Amino acid sequence: MSDYVIIFDDSKFEITLENKNLRIRRPDEKTKFFPIKYIGQVVIFGSPKVSCNVWRELAENAIPSIIFPGRGRGVPAWVTPGLSSSVMVRVSQHEASKDSEIVDKVCRWLLDQKLSGHQNLIYGFTKLAEEDNDESYIYNVLQAFDDRSFLNKAIDDIKKIRGDLKTATGREQLMGYEGAAAHIWFDILAKILPKEWNFTGRNRRPPKDPINALMSLTYTMAMGDVHTTVHDRGLDPCIGFLHALLPGRESLVLDVLEPLRCGADAFVLHLLDCGIQPKHFTYSSENGCRLNKEARKIYFTQWSEWRMEWPYFLLDKSYVSLIESSDDTTDYEYDPDYEYDPDEYDSDDEYDSDDPDVKTKSLKKCCWWIIKDLISHWTDKD
Q1: 87-379: CATH homologous superfamily?
Q2: 282 vs 299: CA distance, rounded Å
Q3: Which of 83, 88, 224, 276 would you label with 216, given CA atoms 20 to 30 Å apart?
Q4: pTM of the predicted model, to two decimals?
Q5: Which top CATH class is 4-79?
Q6: Which sign, positive or negative, has the C-alpha torsion 355, 356, 360, 364?
């Protein structure tokens, strides 16, 4: 299984290709070999020496590669395979992007999935607070609150916004609802996270505190799989629906990322259980807050596992059934009129990848299903 995330963060690395294997050399160390077929993602920090045939082999095998600039200057770059030959799907995408009714339909669906995820995360907080799990960081911080009714209010507020989305039209109005829901989610985090994290809300370019630094990094990592899947499917990455056209911006990639942000935020909170602490970050006026090299080992070890066990159960329950049916023979029916019922999430099921009833899929598979359903919204004539 191609689930290993390979990180090169030393300029002394020399990476070449030898018989479908990465040949990895570093002075005074034994040469190592790693089979291409087992690689799920490649991450580069700084300026290690990577031969051209390595990049070609990674692209041909649809392995996303992310190159971070040295010392945090600039934006990351993605190396992905070229667009597939599915030209007709690009034609239909371009035509759909000019139809305001279709654009509104796609935007409403994307935002509903995103808001559903954050609604379910907050609901998860309410259930976690009632458990006896002192190994959980979030459990422990929630115990400081005698009155946790603010969590239920946030759930109700997001649910109301999701209802308002059903009749919203125009990107400005739709994004206004999205902004209101995002404000609720980040306010919850600001309220429950201890002051040592200095989190007061979302900020970026550059991030000013550890939580925002982790969010920005995780969104970037998730975009690696989104990039590859968009290219594999033959879609135009620059023609989006929720995100307007802007020179140099891959708007469709950002669109597909939206329903995945709840899983990325869940991963950030998961990292707090894995030893990541405020001391693991550096600060500068130019680059903002950044994860240090020691903590990157923790981060990427956890990320390698998380991207293969993405918590798709955070998405809307009716959509979850579509993803579940992709790997088994059980028949599921998509119900567009399904109403969210938080009590349905009250179960003793553990989301363990070794469990036959696992509630996770790989990030790549989630990307495929989001894109599949996205296309159906502009090809469905009803």
Answers
A1: CRISPR-associated endonuclease Cas1, C-terminal domain (1.20.120.920)
A2: 15
A3: 83
A4: 0.81
A5: alpha beta
A6: positive
Write down the mean pLDDT value for the chain: 81
Positive or negative CA dihedral for 341, 120, 373, 183? Answer: positive
Of 104, 115, 110, 103, give the one whose Cα is nearest residue 163. 115
pLDDT by residue (tens digit) across 96-133?
989 999 999 999 999 999 999 999 999 988 888 888 77
Contact predicate 167/108, CB 8 Å: no
Same fold, 4-79 and 87-379: no
Q: Are strands 65-68 and 77-79 parallel, antiparallel or unpaired?
A: antiparallel
